[in-house]
Amino acid sequence: MKIQFISTGGTIDKIYFDALSQFEVGDSIATAILTDALVDFDYDVVALMKKDSIEMTKTDRESIRAHIENDPNTHFVITHGTDTMPETAKALEGITDKTVVLTGALTPARFRTTDAVFNLGMAVAAVQIAKPGVYIAMSGQIFEASRVRKNREANRFEAT
């Protein structure tokens, strides 16, 4: 089984610029995480966009959907910003014969203390064993696309 990782941006890929005192979305961190983890499966990483998820549009979601529908792969992990991850997951529902898992991070992957590595690992496990459909892997759980929300006050994802 080959897994295609689709990078869309979000906190998982953010870089802090001291001189500017701000964060910006950088290159995908997925390859570095997978290399460090010594994974033994076929994969590739495709960067579709570098956006904070708050800036994602309907057109962006349609582009992600079209990419997955037209790609010959059947297993996808999408790294995505957490603020609108549930909206993108819902926009991907109904894709047939493919397993799609969205994940991200509440703190940048380049930080020493981050949930990024754990979340990406959860997504890799989920995409390999879940039946075709769309899921979110966050907060140590796997959620169905239409049954999850981000609880900003508790800083976690939870079932609805």
Automatic annotation (TrEMBL):
It comes from Candidatus Paraluminiphilus aquimaris. It comes from the Bacteria. Residues 2-153 form the L-asparaginase N-terminal domain. Signal peptide: none annotated. This is Asparaginase. InterPro entries: Asp/glu_Ase-like_sf, Asparaginase/glutaminase-like, L-asparaginase_N, L-asparaginase_N_sf. Pfam families: Asparaginase.
